């Protein structure tokens, strides 16, 4: 599934963000999704019209983007952005549990396995777009992710976004992915805590029990110190934190020691996620340093999971197929891959536990474990 | 703006390292147990310890990384070790928050049992002047609510508290009124031999969420021998009234404590099995205290600490076997020690703290209005030693009672970080002090650590639990099941 | 009883160990003596550069050779403890003080700074 497409824009003067409507009688201020060969009738109230049809002959009083392929899933209540070049982005899908706001493409870390490599651009002006998107999201939405890059680079803009979510989407759980480094400054954590968002979790990565290990993986000297203090500050101001660990060649050896560090130093973490590598972004350039067949680290993964679980912490294993996991770890495995990048192999059709298994990343089917196989419960 | 990746060397420390505070113990076989200021520990080779202290330990070695991660050394100007140690230290000492949380009301000295180890002077059931008066109760409550604690616990003891049930009822009702006014939760516990419990009492306890704590010394032949009463049916009464109480209050609202006598020492498994049979999920194995009747009848109840420890080891082994077979059953003292060794958290048990809980974590309001630093101090008073009487509710102000010279002396002489022997001990973060015990057994509040039975017990049990956890994977999992809430995974 | 090379067996059955006071401080020696008062009688005296420790049996059946041997090993451990304590007592006091104190005892101007100013440059884009 793609979350963007390029069509042909007619009369689109600037980026327009709006909800999708599929019925012209109910399309005020919205993008009308129109998939018929003849143009829609009275659309003067609409924000614009969007269609997969080749419609270069339609004459409409509102902006039009036509010849849009692969977005046929769009439904009423979804939100898109279309720009003067005809570039359409799906910002929100009402029927999906996996919605997120990509806050920025900037980052202050440079993780060796980054799946969303940072861009050296100034995109601070995206904030207005994000605030507008929040206005358009259905308040009954269960959960919304905030990702990047590094969302906290927006500083007060980040705080404003959280505040806006609390106001407009009070019943929506927020899950922010952040390296937590800026919370080294106690006052930043204090301000976030003061917002008192009713359901906010910051997902913060930690890759080693020692600074040298962690700093190397994230390619930033001082990152471990900043993240550790950030975690303490966030707890001080009652902001829920989740700790995330990507398991690969550089992190698997001391994984159990990291689990011990979490139990003794960050017992307040509401959840710990041990995650498989996503074959995207920087991973390909650093493959030799990072790749290890998951079948070869099951012992370490089990030891770490057991330490966390015995200590009463909530722990999940993400992005690992059940055939690759030690069976004692199956109860921790979650179906974690976002719908839009989740696939299964042909072989999986023969597997007895396919329904419980999270499957693969779209990007993760070529370089994979030697243990991938259909399981027969026979 | 960078676009290239740096190798691991870029992020490694460049200078040497410095030590963070820790103590160590000799485990034999050239191994040392290192324990840091907040109880994190590591077993390393003796020669690695020497290298560590000589500053020649290899910074690339696993043992170096382990020591660094657990805050035994630091090698940069990072604030993380300092901030984390401070946070953890604060957590370990958080039992001090709120000052006096546990308030014991000795509501009556009257009792119909004649337990051989009884720690109060026995008075037969019909002497009313050994009951706490309404006025004394009211003044005592005044002091209770002066405590800055966020949560309060009022525990009724005796004699047999139920012999003065009307006063219990009054105190609970009054305490609830005052608690509601100050928005502070109060928990109530009544210790009782259960023999005299009525339906009226049970209804009241149910309506006010009261916990009960009874005594169960083991199967009838042990329990009844330890705890005589007219008709010699103490055990039968416990069983019958346990059932009634559980029906009225809920299964988990009644706990049991046992006292170990020389007779008990011969039957560790039988005692544990009796607890299991009667549906308890934990037992607290503790040695007899050297006070009250126990001292006077030392020949029949007396035994050495090493005899008790042999009994404990057998009982614990039996308990572990029960758990291995699938039934949850904990030993309460081990649970306490394990929580202190393996988690970053503090424990509320007043008799294993530094500074000691006596006078600061707990206060005892006697039937006659005298206030004592602990239950044991009151027992000493019954033996005519009033050294640890803090004051009287009718005469003395809160500040003089809780801020007076006795409380201060107890606190100052029970900070084990500075006591001889304790100051160097590797197990210091896991242990605590009991100045009243040391006064009673060794003649002064500081005591003599090498010959102290308190020291002997804790050193032995801590070492025993550490060994089991390291060597026995089943024991490790069982211990963790005792010290943490169910994980949600 | 065969005696360890650095110990002297006295006619009355007690064992004497002469300790170089330049190598082991009086404090280290006294701590070690204290630890052994559970299993033996101990006496210490000082004469110029030597501290003489005398160990006597509490009970005729005591193995004084073992006790003296354990004492000698313990001496080394206590010396190590003194070294560790010497190197770490300042930071220990700081940790304890900071744990109980709301004010900032360590010069942590850094993490107390304004995140807008960001003196450590944490929010620097790559």
Description:
The complex is a heterotrimer of chains A (378), B (489) and C (126). Chain A has 378 residues and is α/β, with parallel strands linked by helices. Chain A has two domains: 4-92, 3-Layer(bba) Sandwich (Glucose Oxidase, domain 1), CATH 3.50.30.10; 99-364, TIM Barrel (Alpha-Beta Barrel). Helices cover 22% and strands 19% of the residues of chain A. Chain A is built from eight helices and 17 strands. In chain A, the strands form three sheets. Chain A has an eight-stranded mixed sheet with strand order 1-8-7-3-4-5-6-2. A seven-stranded parallel sheet of chain A has the order 9-10-11-12-13-14-15, with helices on one face. In chain A, helix 1 (126-136) runs parallel beside helix 2 (156-168) and helix 6 runs parallel beside helix 8. The model of chain A has no long low-confidence stretch (mean pLDDT 94). Chain B has three domains: 17-92, no CATH class; 97-402, Alpha-Beta Barrel (TIM Barrel), CATH 3.20.20; 412-469, no CATH class. Helices cover 42% and strands 13% of the residues of chain B. Chain B contains 20 helices and 15 strands. In chain B, the strands form four sheets. Chain B has an eight-stranded mixed sheet with strand order 10-9-8-7-6-13-14-15, sandwiched between helices. A three-stranded antiparallel sheet of chain B has the order 2-3-4. In chain B, helix 10 (268-277) packs across helix 13 (305-324). Chain C has 126 residues and is α+β, with helices and mostly antiparallel strands. Chain C has a domain at 7-88: Ribosomal protein S6/Translation elongation factor EF1B (Alpha-Beta Plaits). Chain C contains two helices and four strands; from the N terminus they run ββαββα. Chain C has a four-stranded antiparallel sheet, with helices on one face. In chain C, helix 1 crosses helix 2 (64-100). The interface between A and B is large, with 38 and 37 residues.
